[in-house]
Amino acid sequence: MRRSALVLILLFVIFTHHATAAKAHSWLAKETKFGTGVKTGSSVLQYHDTCVWVQVFFISEKFFQGLQKKETPTGTEFSKGGTQLQDFPARLIVDFEATVQKCNPTPDEILPPDYATGLMTGATFEVSWKTGTQKRSVLLQSTEEQHRPGLRWDYFLAIPAKGVPLTDELVIDVSLRHGISRASLSASLDPRPNDH
After folding, report:
1. What is the pLDDT of residues 177-186, one digit of tens each?
2. How far, in Å, CA of 53 to CA of 47, rounded?
3. Do residues 175 and 184 make contact, with C-beta atoms less than 8 angstroms apart?
4. Which of 195, 186, 172, 159 is nearest to 123 (CA)?
5. Domain range holding 85?
6. Structurally, how many domains does the chain consist of?
7. How many other C-beta atoms can be found within 10 angstroms of the C-beta atom of residue 181?
8. Which residue among 3, 10, 34, 144 is least enclosed by CB atoms within 10 Å?
């Protein structure tokens, strides 16, 4: 009898955990001067012996606070406060956060605060919205590079997003060191298998 009760309690805890996990999807959040950002992608770029760990955040004031995502038989649905949402806000800020480090550091090696400055200064970007296999290039409205002494760089890209479905993917092409190093990565609120 006692074993049956323990099994039932264990099954209840597991079921409750899975139901809660399935119900509430949350993204890693970050506060910025443009509002709350949610992590939508990540990658590691390499240039010679320097590795750049990239995280991409979507920001639009308080739009992403409390945003919920759920899978349905007809696809992914987004809602906030009980209201279903389909499109991004008209203006979206994308934070391309990059942290530099040596790919194979030696023990006890301390990198100077200006490490990889030549690589990261003046990075340029091209972006496209992607629906399925269809890509649409987007003109950047503005780009702001932010770097304090240290190993982290932030590039804030303002892009138009009016009428863009929340299920679309943003493809970011970055050019470092005046085009010598190029890379492409994608960011999405609805990542597909093998994304990031």
Report:
1. 888 889 999 9
2. 12
3. no
4. 172
5. 27-188
6. 1
7. 17
8. 3
